[in-house]
């Protein structure tokens, strides 16, 4: 028994197909407008795709072909629980009755539904809130109650659409730890922008861009060897794209990046061709490889050195850049320039006179660059 979804929403340019096993928590990530919430809303019954099919443990949630009405199970009959950004508690019911609403609407007696509500309030450490009205709750408290309400119907699938996006920095860690506990062994899909949510809560990451799933895999593997621009940005890597020719990546603007083929079945990416790329010490006659396979070159900001002029010496990649901003990060400064970043010491920033608008060269040795097929 599992969850399968195939859905096309033409107006949102979404075309997805995914599979979730029992007991598996999947994080759906991607930039704004990627189609993440469309996936959740389609499964919850809040958004009807143009075509597609969704089956949860043998129950067809919808089956649509575009010709005729098809099959469409209403939201309350799907066995799906939803936790959104906002708690959306019933303002006229106290906390206990908010949580009891689900079991009660499914036919449980008043006593049974309240017993279930108390049990789930205990699961989210909110028993003491039972008699309060929603207006008396903090944001974090209200979201814990909303989680209890979503779980009280014993859903076969729990959908969480950026559940911590509206919380303050003090409430988020507690709710994240709570979710880690209650999601253990439970099938769930969580839409999030926070890589920490994926690391702590998800068994697998799905990355969406432009309404499509561009990569999927175990959380640790995707972050260690990302194959999409968004995943690479989460992992904090510099990534350039182009076509592969041996140990060289040929970019669309004619630039070349030397590197080493990545070991094992991984990958890495981000960014477009970078104008102003120079390569020191590469063979001038290297072919353009216009027909070569698509690939990526990836390297961490810590591998990048910053110079005021192109250095001579061993084979290395040299990027002519203009500094955009400087970001203090612990004991170093992250220097951002377009799609690239370098981590340097505060002393180096002072010595080089780095500031927004400065024209410098980012340099990385070929041995520090990993090349991957797209």
From TrEMBL:
It comes from the Bacteria. One of its GO terms (molecular function) is ATP binding. Residues 3-235 form the ABC transporter domain. Pfam families: ABC_tran, TOBE. PROSITE patterns: ABC_TRANSPORTER_1, ABC_TRANSPORTER_2, MOP. Residues 312-373 form the Mop domain. Keywords: ATP-binding, Molybdenum, Nucleotide-binding, Transport. Signal peptide: none annotated. PANTHER family: SPERMIDINE/PUTRESCINE IMPORT ATP-BINDING PROTEIN POTA (PTHR42781), SPERMIDINE_PUTRESCINE IMPORT ATP-BINDING PROTEIN POTA (PTHR42781:SF4). This is Molybdate transport system ATP-binding protein.
